[in-house]
Each structure stands twice: as C-alpha cells, then as structure tokens.
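User: I'm preparing a small set of examples for a lab meeting where we compare how different chains pack in three dimensions. I only have the primary sequence for this one, and I'd like the structure in token form so I can line it up with the others. Please keep the answer compact; I'll paste it straight into my notes.
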Amino acid sequence: MSVNFLIKSGIITFFFSCIFNSAIVAQQLDENLQIQSEPKAVVNYKTSPQINPLISQVNELAGGNDELTERVIFQIRQTKNTAIRRIVLDNEFETLSEELKKDAIKQSEVVEIINRLKK
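Assistant: Understood. Below is the structure token output for the 119-residue chain.
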C-alpha cells in the first residue's frame, strides 16, 4: 500500500470518527437539556384545599364580587372578633349560646357592611 493511500484512509477514518463522536455528544447534550427543561409539578396536599366558609358566605352575599368580598372580610376582622367563622340568620343568632355567638355574625350585619362599602 502506498503512503498516500494510508494517509487518505487515515484522514477519512479520522473525519468519520469526528463526525460520529460529534453526533453522539450532540445527542447526549440534547437529551440532558430535555430532561432538565421538562416541567415538573409537585403537589403536597393530602386533601384538596377548601375555601373558608365565612369567605364563601360573604362572597355569595356580595354577588360573587371578589374585591367587595375582600373588603367586607377586612371590615369584619377590624370590627369584630377575628375568630368569626360563619354567618347566621338573625333569628338563628339569637338562639345560639354565648360561646357560639363569639364565632358567628348576623347576616343583617354583613349585608349592612356590604351596602355601606358599595357606596
């Protein structure tokens, strides 16, 4: 075999080797990028989160207006006991024990706050 043939075959082998290795490296980089860029969601709830019943009741009375609901809740927290958990009808409120009254607010009071804040 001639020296030229050996040199040419060596260059060709080297060239194909470089292309092959480059393709493998590029494929590995692409796979690594795909693995790193895949979106991941982590949910830690054992039960689904539930809305506070007071907020739900106020939102219903406020006609589904979230901004008004926030303002009403803020007003209730400022003027009443922060442990208020529910809204009750006025006649039902009167039948509650003193202990249960601490956790409740009359519906008429909430409606009054809503009307005052709407103005």
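A couple of notes for your slides: The two ends are 101 Å apart (CA to CA). The longest helix spans residues 3-37.

User: Perfect, thanks.
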